[in-house]
């Protein structure tokens, strides 16, 4: 990780949430796209706990209301506890 970047502690994982597309693959615009919160994201960094089962670069599914949203250098991230991760996708 580069200097000044976020390093989660303990059993926490730093994710970059995936963007919910406003348009489907068929070209239909989704009216609710701006209202929905993504439940998937890319693992950017992992904490120091050995029990964390994900690795940097993996995409994961996490609990809908899990985690804490943070912004660093103009980029939005979410920090979630390992227990809030549901699956690797």
Q: Quote the distance from N terminus to C terminus.
A: 23 Å
Question: Strands of the biggest beta sheet: in what spatial order?
Answer: 4-5-1-2-3-6
Q: Can you tell me the overall shape?
A: globular
Low-confidence stretches: none
Question: Major β-sheet, in short?
Answer: 6 strands, antiparallel
**The CATH architecture:** Roll
* Beta-strand percent range: 35-45%
Helix count, per DSSP?
0
- The ordered H/E elements are EEEEEE
Arithmetic mean of pLDDT: 86
How large, in whole angstroms, is the Cα Rg?
14 Å
CATH top level class name? Mainly Beta
- Helix- and strand-based class? mainly beta
Fraction in helix? under 10%
Structure notes:
With 89 residues, the chain is mainly β. It has one domain (12-88): GroES chaperonin (10 Kd Chaperonin, Protein Cpn10, Chain O, Roll), CATH 2.30.33. The chain contains no helices and six strands. The chain has strands at residues 12-17, 40-46, 59-62, 68-72, 75-81, 85-88. It has a six-stranded antiparallel beta sheet with strand order 4-5-1-2-3-6, with no helix packed on it. It is globular, with a radius of gyration of 14 Å. The two termini are 23 Å apart.
